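Need tokens for this chain, all 340 residues.
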Amino acid sequence: MYQTGMYGGCCNPLHMGHVDCILKAAAMCKELYIVLSVGTNREEIDYRIRYRWLYQLTKHIGNVKLLTITDEAETKGAYTKEYWQKDADIVKAQIGKKIDVVFCGSDYGTESFWNVCYPESELYIFQRNEISSTELRKNPYAHWDWIPKVVRPYYTKKVLLMGGESTGKSTLTISLAHRFNAEYIDEAGRELSEKSGTDTMMLPEDYTEILLRHKLNETEAAERGNKLLFIDTDALVTRFFMDFLDGEDPKTEANRVLADAIDGLNSYDLILFLEPDVEFFLEGGRSEEIRDNRDYYSNRIKELLRSHGREFVCVGGDYKERYEKAVAAVQELLSGKCDE
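Here are the structure tokens for all 340 residues:
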């Protein structure tokens, strides 16, 4: 067993090839230092996210320490020998002891940075034949099995379903989750709005709880990352119903601020807006006012979305047509190249 080892890379993103190398290297050393390379002039995944991936991957082991090193090269190809020795000296100073072995994958050779700049260390090359980080960035969904569990939430696409009352949001949310074998979250307000038996008797505190509960549910579901997360309703629809049901209460303004703040934190890859052109079922405390003026209130929600800079895809027709249009929109979302 080696005393001190080192493994480095960009991990942009971390993939199963990295995982295998890191776990094997950690088993071969009393101490393993993982050096995360950060390009300050390159378009990379936030280094704090990559650092967290490495920490979550190795925290159970006990003999792994994480370091970061930055460079100003504009591309990986521009990371030439002029950077090499300076950065190696920084790494050696951070570790502060003799590095017995430097680990790398077989995508590097004896002429690489890892060998040239650490002549006093043994070079240990792991054979690798997996897909590269570059290919994963192009289309992570086509290579999902190569993405570690800790990384998947980063690439999970969020699909929000919105619309007025009785437009089939909840049913379609669950149907899409089943269709794509994905996660979903229910509308938090459905249960909380019925604490008094009717939403007309809701308290301002109920809206606060709905807003916070829904955001927490979304965060927890996203951490289970499985390509897609379908979300039934969001903070802006809650804000709409606050104005509709409770617009005069002094505490409503504070809840509006909270709704806007949560909306500012939210990000969605696709918003499907369901049109009010299916039958309205007056159940579960639904509003007769909204039933009798469906287009008006649907347009009010659209205006609220637009005022907050949200773009959306309108989905109408009968239930079969809605399902098929929604599936097609999600498939198009997954087929596109991922934004780096």
